[in-house]
Amino acid sequence: MKRPTSEAKRIILLDVYRGFAIFGIFVVNIGIMNSTFLNQDVFALQWTSALDQGIATLLQLFFYTKFFPIFSLLFGIGIAMQLLKRSDSTAKKTSFFYRRMGILWGFGLSHILFLWSGDVIHLYAIIGLVMLPLVHRSNGLLLLTSVLLLLFPYYDPLFANLFDLLDYHPEHYLKEHTGASVRTLIRNGNYTAGMRLRVLEYFSNLPMLLGFLGPIALSMFLLGIYLGKNQLQYRLKPWLKQISIPMLIGLVSTSAYRYYFLFHLLGHKLDLYRLYREYFVKLMVLSDVFTGLFYLWIIGMLWYYTPLKKVLSILQFPGRMALTNYLAQSLVGLILFSSIGFSRYETFAPSETFAIACAVFCCQTVVSWFWLRHYNFGPLEWVWRCLSYGKLLPLRKRPEVVQQENS
User: Which of 33, 188, 219, 378 could form a disulfide linkage to 321, CB 3.0–4.6 angstroms apart?
Assistant: First the structure.
C-alpha cells in the first residue's frame, strides 16, 4: 500500500488557495446561518444603514458564487493528483477511492444532521464517485464536458420535470413553517428539534443543490481533473503569466456584466429580463465562476512575482486543515445562533456577520498554524486518511522534525 503524500511534496500554493476558499465560503455561509433561505429576503430588508448596504453589495460583487467553484476546482485537482500518484493496480486504486469518497460522504451526512443543513462535501463525495471513470479520458473530452455542463442554461426546468416525474415536491418539507416559527425553533427549540429542521431544510433546498451548485461543481471538478492530470500545478508560474491578458480582459467584461445584472436588470425589472431570464442568470453564473478563477490567478501572480508571498503563505495553515475548519465553522454557527449556545439567530446585521467571519477565520488560522507545528494533519484530515488507508498513521510529528521546522 502506498503511503500518503509526504509533507515535502506538498504544493504550498494549493494549500493557500484552499485557505482562501475556506474564508470566502464562511463569509457566505454565516449569512445563511444567520437567516435561512425561508426568511432571508424579508430579513435583509431591515438593514438600511450605509455600512450594511455596503457590506451587502460587497458580498454580491465579490463573494456569492465565487468561492464554491474554487473549492470544487481544487477538489478535482486533488482527486487527479491522488489517483495518478498511486502505483497500485486499477482495482486497488478504485477500491481506495470509493472508500475515501464513502468516508467523505459520511462526514457530509453527519454535518447536515448534527451541525448545518448547507453541507456540500457530501455532494463532492457523490460527484467524486461519478468522476472516477473520467480521470483517464482524453483531455478534449474533459474540457468539452466541463464547458457544456457550465454553459447549459436549462437546469431549473430539467430538475423541475424530473421532480414531477418522481413525485418529489421540495416545497412540502417546510410548508408548516414560517420565518417566525423557524426563528423560534432555532432560538428556543431543543437540539433534537434542530436536527429535524436541518433534515427538512436539506430536502427543501435540494433543487438548488442539484440544479445550481451541482452543475458548477461537476464542471469545476472536470476542469480540476484536467489540470491535475496534466500536472499544471507543477508549472503554474510560467502558465499564470502566459494567461495574464485573457484574465484581465475577462475580469473587465464579467465585472461590467455583473454590475449591469445586479443594479440594472434586477433593480428595474425589465421586460427583457423576464423574457430571457435563464440566459441572463446563466451569464451571471459564468461571470461569478470566472471571478473565482481570477482570484486564483491573481493570488498565484502575487505568490510568484511579488514580495507578498510571505503574507499569503499564512493561508496555507487553514488550507491544510480545510475539512476540519469547514466543519468547525458550522459548529461556531450552531453555538452562535441556536439554543445550544447563544440563541442569536436573526439578530446580526450583515456587517456584524462579516466581522464575525473574519474574526473566526483569523482564530482558525492561528489555531491551524499552532496545530500543524506539532501534528502532521488536521484532526479530521487524520481520521479521513486513517480510514481511507486502512491503517493508523502517525499524527504527532517526530521531535526532530518539530525542532528542525522551528529552527
Answer: 378
Size of the chain, expressed as the number of residues it contains:
407
Name the residue with cell 426563528: 183
Q: Which three cell numbers stand for residue 241?
A: 503569466
Work out the number of other CB atoms within 10 angstroms of the CB of residue 199: 13
Locate the domains of the chain by residue range: 7-234+306-406
90-114 vs 121-131: helix axis angle to the nearest 10?
A: 160
- Cβ-contact 280, 265 below 8 angstroms: yes
Angstrom CA distances, 220 to 15, 131, 206, stand at 17, 11, 20
Answer yes or no: are the C-beta atoms of 140 and 192 closer than 8 Å: no
Convert the pLDDT of each residue in 91-112 to its tens digit.
787 888 999 999 999 999 999 9
Q: Are 322 and 26 in contact (CB under 8 A)?
A: no
Q: Which three cell numbers stand for residue 31?
A: 449569512
Across 251-267, average pLDDT: 88
Please tell me the distance from the alpha carbon of residue 24 to that of residue 348, in angstroms, as a whole number: 19
Q: State how far the Cα of 208 lies from the Cα of 187, in Å rounded to an integer.
A: 25
Please tell me the distance from the alpha carbon of residue 402 to that of residue 65, in angstroms, as a whole number: 39
Question: What is the value of pTM for the model shown?
Answer: 0.94
Q: What is the pLDDT of residues 121-165, one digit of tens each?
A: 999 999 998 888 888 889 999 999 999 999 999 999 999 999 999
Cα separation, 76 vs 78, whole angstroms:
5
C-alpha count within 13 angstroms, C-beta hemisphere, residue 280: 18
Distance of CA 264 to the CA centre of its chain: 28
395 three-class SS: coil
